[in-house]
Amino acid sequence: MQAPRLSISLGIRLALAALLALLPASPAALAGAIPLLQGPGGLPTLAPLLEKVTPAVVNIAVLQRSPEEDNPLLQDPFFRRFFGLPETSQPQMAAGSGVIVDAKDGYVLTNRHVIKDATQVMVTLKDNRRFPARVIGSDAGTDIAVLQIKADHLTELPFGDSDALRVGDFVVAIGNPFGIGQTVTSGIVSALGRSGLSPQGYEDFIQTDAPINPGNSGGALVDLRGELIGINSAIIGPSGGNVGIGFAVPSNMARAVMEQLIRFGKVKRGRLGISMKELTPELARTLGVTADEGAVIAEVQNDSPAARAGLQPGDVVVAVNGRPVRSASELRARLGVMPVGEEVTLKVLRGAQTRTVRARIGAIEAHAVPGGQAVPELAGASLANAERSTADGAERVIAVTGVEPGSPADRNGLQPGDLIIGVNGQRVRSVAGLASVLRKARHVALNVIRGDFLLTISIR
Length: 460
What we know:
Layout (H helix, E strand, L loop, with lengths): L1 H21 L4 H4 L16 H7 L3 E8 L12 H6 L9 E11 L4 E5 H4 L2 E7 L5 E3 L1 E6 L4 E5 L21 E6 L7 E12 L10 E4 L11 E4 L4 E8 L10 E5 H14 L5 E2 L2 E5 L2 H7 L7 E6 L4 H5 L6 E5 L2 E2 L3 H8 L7 E8 L2 E8 L1 E2 L9 E2 L6 E10 L2 E11 L4 H4 L7 E5 L2 E2 L3 H10 L3 E7 L2 E7 L1
Antiparallel strand pairs: 1-2, 1-4, 2-3, 3-7, 4-5, 6-7, 8-9, 8-11, 9-10, 10-13, 11-12, 12-13, 14-21, 15-16, 16-17, 17-18, 17-19, 19-20, 22-23, 23-24, 24-25, 25-26, 25-27, 27-28
């Protein structure tokens, strides 16, 4: 029974090869894409493409501070001796992947969670050269980080247009799974615009069935042109391994974040002054619009850039800067990487009319509250009681009035101007209430409002 199956398999492969040879040249081929028919006997192969792109994908080894270093009690020598702990805390090792995107200046894209809490970062190239890396900056909201190495004769991976992807496009994932060395897997784009997978809120993931495993984080998702179209970031699997569902940050988002990190050392997010919700068929009928995809503006804040641009509740945003918007989460992700001062063009449906609205991203309002107090569980953050105006009136919140650089609060992603409204989904309305909940919680996830967005920030 084995022979017939092998014969059929070979026949299918040869037929596929013949079919591909007869197809007219695609725009990608005309643009210089590497042809697939390069193997012995004319069989399809990705080897020529991979020979060009894999030198741009690197392994990243990280020496991380021990979580004990952030716990004052565990730093007490008497406490450590009493409980039989080592005299000094032990650093931890971690591994991941990265992508060289600028050979001249040595910039490497990776995930923030790969280099979080790093004291040392070492980058190993495919040719086994090793270089210490400097962390240029990282962004918790998109899980993107930028490193820099000083090295000659680097290979960079050109950016592709992730907005042009379609479900069914072939892709290749390259990384360092389980630390065993550079590995290549292949698949297709399974879905676009995935969200709700991480706590930060700026999500527009590419879903792929190209096998992605622990250690692939920060590696490259590449199209058949040999262009970077995503940074591999997350997997779904009961045991932490591949089950055919992996996620990547789109290259357009990663590039926008990278440019800000290189320029400012952080992402300077702004605000449009809107809240939004998904467009459903029922809501589309109610609003009198024919679109089946888009983001509905639920609220426009007074004296905001959105209000000054003439946006109204009930408007349906279907495109941003000429790019289609499929959902509220996609609009949230697009706006979340736009810097203060940038002009954005929105295509908006208002009933049967189509409008083009231009607005300029404004700065996140500073919440002027007196003083600030410390909470031990959020070391490095100054907090104060405050109020936030909503459509239903004022609500009590906790304002982050200051964050000490390099502190645990800073490393976990808190920023001045953040408004804390809950812990682990439980509403809090005062600094005292927040402290009480934090003292009882084993695992802490802060519910935070930052500009137009509601985030969840996990605290180690």
